[in-house]
Amino acid sequence: MTVMSSIPIEIQFDDESRQTALGFVDVGINGCVHRFLLDTACAQSKMSWCAHTQTLEKIGVRESSGVFGRSQYDEVLIERVKFGSLDLSNVSMARAPEGERGYSLLGMDVLKHLSLRFFLSEGRLDVLNGQLELANELEVDQG
């Protein structure tokens, strides 16, 4: 397997513990760069509210459930999502409502298209050109 692209990942450690950290990457959304938290526990990606995302056309409503209960988000259509060598067209994402605080989340709906190798101590992840051989099949359900 060869590396198709290397993507910088910004690691932010928890203020109280170096055992806990968050990883952030830049993702192109319709030509604008947005900062997303990599979240492999998130089934569907979600964008935070900002001047750019508020201009995206609402195509529906999306229900979400998580640790803190159920939420409803606008579903918007993204014409183009660019992340490393991944270039997707017509991707639907949830958009947080105006005033909601939180991160944009890059979830498994996007990440499942990639073979990634993480180098956290170097602050990068590599996108590989093929599928990794897995001991067990990765199952992704609706939740």
Question: Which SSEs are present, and which pair or pack?
Answer:
Blueprint: E1 3-8, E2 10-13, E3 21-29, E4 32-38, E5 46-47, E6 58-66, E7 69-83, E8 86-95, E9 104-106, H1 108-111, E10 115-119, E11 124-128
Parallel strand pairs: 4-9, 5-8
Antiparallel strand pairs: 1-11, 2-3, 3-4, 3-7, 6-7, 7-8, 10-11
Give a structural overview.
With 143 residues, the chain is mainly beta. It has one domain: Cathepsin D, subunit A, domain 1 (Beta Barrel). 3% of the residues lie in helices and 52% in strands. The chain has one helix at residues 108-111, and strands spanning 3-8, 10-13, 21-29, 32-38, 46-47, 58-66, 69-83, 86-95, 104-106, 115-119, 124-128. The mean pLDDT is 86.
| Stretches with pLDDT under 50, minimum 5 residues | none
Spell out the CATH superfamily. Acid Proteases
| Estimated structural class | mainly beta
Integer count of domains: 1
Please tell me the overall pLDDT: 86
CATH T-level topology = Cathepsin D, subunit A, domain 1
- Fraction of residues in β-strands: over 45%
**Helical content, roughly?**
under 10%
Main sheet overview? 8 strands, mixed
Helical stretch count? Answer: 1
Number of strands: 11
SSE pattern, N- to C-terminal: EEEEEEEEEHEE
CATH class designation: Mainly Beta
Gyration radius (Cα, Å) is 16 Å
CATH 2nd-level architecture: Beta Barrel
Molecular shape: globular
Q: N- to C-terminal separation?
A: 31 Å
